């Protein structure tokens, strides 16, 4: 590097160029020789005649470069170098030890103490200049790296603030989503509906619910919106209003009769209405799978529509189990899709489980999925005396026990459990 280039680079300290040099030597003659050359090359020079005085300078105003003699009375150059490296200041000074020592073990001591380079005395002017140029490049890279690290730390701090804000919003969103399922268990006469909703994140895309417009009339459902996260959760909020258990006038699964009471619409009509609404909303790419069921609690006649959702599981009182339904097309995929419902006759003591694919597509420790057969085994492993919420909690716990530790819970898990006990 030429003298003019050194002086020009020194106008901006952040550029990494060496601007200020501290010369430490107990010999006034040696300092004068070094200072003369350094000033001629355009550097700002500070002098110290001992390690103690030099260390005080480094504490108050750390130089860019230190040229220190090794052998000095009091604090040696080696001790001075160690002390400089122990300072807590974030700035870094390039340290060159001046020594008559050339043995490898002594050089190793200097490097271990924190020295960056060595010059053997008497010091050659050309060699000193070359070593300063090398130090200038290294110091420049080090400061550039420190600058980028500071930028990264600032960016991480900003991201943390943003993440905390998002996390706070998601926690509030979870509370709102939980409000869509105000009751996890409810008795309807001698029968009962219980709900399970376990999102894999703060919020999820599954929705379960139940409603009854009057005695002996009951509707319940299990829904799984495509995708995960905020978009799916927003869709569940919308569907929650379409199937409200509180505001019957908003519930598209009900219709007003004779301006006196509400009646349940047929499941196939409900599926077709939901499909029409979703298709009509431009810009929405999400779709959802669903099983929606209505039951006459007097007769036990169960009517269901399956729209791409996993097959409902009927658990008979005598221990038999059967998956029912014919699949169907998810809602919101294609316009004017005809949906057909099917019927199942329940007897007192029979139970029905609607569940999302978070159960059947759960990854096991061997890498395979649970599948319907695995779910059926989990159901049979549950205590047959358990019912309602206890049964669902036990079922979910058993799922977590067979779940892969590596993959964990990759999808939302939800279920609707209906226990029929006669009129």
Short key terms for the protein model shown above:
2 domains, 423 residues, rod-shaped, Phosphatase 2c, domain 1, six-stranded antiparallel β-sheet, alpha+beta, Rossmann fold, five-stranded parallel β-sheet
Tell me what you see in this structure:
- This is Transcriptional regulatory protein YycF.
- One of its GO terms (molecular function) is phosphatase activity.
- InterPro entries: Bact_Sigma-Reg, CheY-like_superfamily, PPM-type-like_dom_sf, PPM-type_phosphatase-like_dom, Sig_transdc_resp-reg_receiver.
- Pfam families: Response_reg, SpoIIE.
- With about 425 residues, the chain is an alpha+beta fold.
- It has 2 domains: about 5-150, Rossmann fold, CATH 3.40.50; about 180-420, PPM-type phosphatase domain (Phosphatase 2c, domain 1), CATH 3.60.40.
- It is built from 11 helices and 18 strands.
- The protein has a 6-stranded antiparallel sheet with strand order 6-7-18-17-14-15.
- Helix 3 (about 50-60) runs parallel beside helix 4.
Indicate the proportion of strand residues: 15-25%
Strand order of the largest sheet: 6-7-18-17-14-15
Helical segment count: 11
Rounded mean pLDDT score: 88
Helix content: 25-40%
Characterize the largest beta sheet: strand count, sense, and whether it forms a barrel. 6 strands, antiparallel
- End-to-end Cα distance, whole Å, is 97 Å
Number of strands: 18
The ordered H/E elements are HEHEHEHEHEHEEEEHEEHEEEEEEHHHE
Report the C-alpha radius of gyration, rounded.
38 Å
The CATH homologous superfamily name of the largest domain equals PPM-type phosphatase domain
In CATH terms, what is the architecture of the largest domain? 4-Layer Sandwich
Number of domains: 2
CATH topology of the largest domain: the name is Phosphatase 2c, domain 1
- For the record, what CATH class of the largest domain applies? Alpha Beta
Shape: rod-shaped
The secondary structure category is: alpha+beta
Low-confidence stretches: 1-16
